[in-house]
Write the structure tokens for this entry.
Amino acid sequence: MVHMPGYYEFACPVKILSGNQALSNLPYEMGLLGATKALLVTDKGDVAAGLVGRVKAAFAGSAASIAAVFDETPVDSSDKVVARVARLYRDAGCDCLVAVGGGSCLDTAKGANVVLTEGTEDLLAFQGAERTTKPTKPFVAIPTTAGTGSEVTSAAVITNVDKGIKMAITSYRIYPHVAILDPKMTLSVPPRLTAATGMDAMTHAVEAFYCLQKNPVSDAFAVAAIRLVLDNLVRSVEDGANEQARLGMANAALLAGISFSNSMVGLVHSLAHAAGGVAHVPHGVANAIFLPWGVEYNIGKCADVIAELGPVMGVGAASASAEERARAVVGALRGLTGRLYEICGLPLALKDTGVKPEQLEAIARAAINDGTLAMNPAEVSYEDALAVLRKAF
Ligand SMILES: [Fe+2]
């Protein structure tokens, strides 16, 4: 029986443009939003890779233009950076934000949009859910990695420098108005980063499929995302110039983003956030390592739900028990990460990421205090988290 919640909500108000010519429609989409002067929010890497040049070229012959470029977005964005972006927007007389980059660039633009519309640089007041009060400025997101799904989510994570905390701001007002997926924008991502970000998308989809806010709509997006990852991730890593595979992964990340922003994520992400905070393990790498272990941990609670992914992943005999079919799903995930290890050296164990054994307890403590754990199907104690970490080590 497919799980049917007694009540659920689902939202994704983002217009999606996907394909080889998608980028060329940027000025037209700005026009539909009533905007003509864009502030590009990006980083040095995307400028060096020629991606900002591609965006500029899309404006040739159009009435719209790029009024200013902010290319100093750091890997982890902060309220100070957001304030600089908002000031540049005002000084250059912009009427639209265009974020070109990975999750940090997109989240920076989301934060700047809140600052611009609310008229205050104090983002702390908007931490939490639905604290914004006004409609935001026109905002177009152009992801240059296929993983976070930030182009279709209502959340931004921004560091508060003075307080030394990461602020999570969630609001239906901070969704981008338009997401543009163009394979040209992800062709230059190197193999291991392609694998890591792709496994972040896979983790969003798999966790979304069994987490506590799951519903029939988020399920549909999760299953479609998993199919696209299985079809395209290895091909994208093996042959980065393959535009079809890149477009497939861009769509997988987007679908997984829509799914998890409605269903939420669980234990795997809590461990990944903790490993990132304590030992600076990159988010996608941590997810790739923890995903099989996290799914396995949840088999005791929801084997039947996990088993539903068997046919999607082409594993598990129909005659087998739910637990056996769920274990086959774990096996398929191990098969995928094992293949990625062979092709590009994506780490399979925590010890291969520089984490020391004496750091496991701190990671376990941080994991059980991570907000994502609230939506994990099975209860997780400190000892449970530590046991999973030891296995993954
Ligand atoms: Fe993630």
Q: What stands out?
A: The chain has a mean pLDDT of 96. The beta strands are 15-18, 37-41, 65-70, 96-101, 128-129, 139-143, 155-160, 165-170, 178-181. The first helix runs from residue 26 to 32. The chain has two domains: 15-185, 191-392.
